[in-house]
């Protein structure tokens, strides 16, 4: 579970999502994998559900790989100041 920081806007795009940090006037683009993870977390689910969503959506992705991806995505978005746990 997470929320966007107050000054961050989100929009879905043809290729995933785009985030705008209004404080720093910086754009971030998320590929479909990162967009799925973020949307799952914003919908109120935990990391375990985000892992399951990746495994369900992408053939050949195992739970271990998906868990590493979820951790990396959350860490990157948190470090960038875009989301709050």
Descriptive tags:
about 80 residues, alpha+beta, three-stranded antiparallel sheet, two-stranded antiparallel ribbon, about 25% strand
Characterization of the model:
The chain has helices at 32-42, 47-57, 63-79; strands spanning 3-4, 8-13, 16-21, 26-30, 83-84. It is α+β, with helices and mostly antiparallel strands and 85 residues long. The strands form two sheets. Strands 2-3-4 form a three-stranded antiparallel beta sheet, with helices on one face. A two-stranded antiparallel ribbon has the order 1-5. Strand 3 and strand 4 (26-30) form a beta hairpin. The longest helix is centred in the last third of the chain and has 17 residues, at 63-79. The model has no long low-confidence stretch (mean pLDDT 96).
In terms of DSSP E residues, the strand content is 15-25%
- From the alpha-carbon coordinates, what is the Rg to the nearest angstrom? 12 Å
The main sheet comes to:
3 strands, antiparallel
Unreliable spans? none
Head-to-tail CA distance between termini: 6 Å
Strand order of the largest sheet: 2-3-4
Residue share in helices?
A: 40-55%
DSSP helical segment count: 3
Q: Please provide the count of β strands.
A: 5
Order of helices and strands: EEEEHHHE
Could you say which overall geometry the principal axes of the C-alpha atoms support?
A: globular
Q: Report the mean per-residue pLDDT as an integer.
A: 96
Structural class computed from helices and strand pairing:
alpha+beta
Topology:
Layout: E1 3-4, E2 8-13, E3 16-21, E4 26-30, H1 32-42, H2 47-57, H3 63-79, E5 83-84
């Amino acid at each position: 579970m997470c929320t966007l920081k107050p000054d961050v806007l989100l929009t879905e795009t043809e290729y995933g999502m785009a985030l705008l940090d209004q404080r720093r006037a910086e754009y971030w683009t998320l590929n479909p994998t990162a967009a799925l993870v973020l949307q799952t977390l914003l919908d109120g689910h935990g990391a375990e559900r985000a892992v399951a969503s990746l495994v369900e959506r992408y053939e050949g992705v195992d739970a271990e790989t998906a868990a590493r991806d979820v951790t990396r995505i959350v860490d990157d978005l948190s470090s960038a100041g875009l989301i709050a746990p």
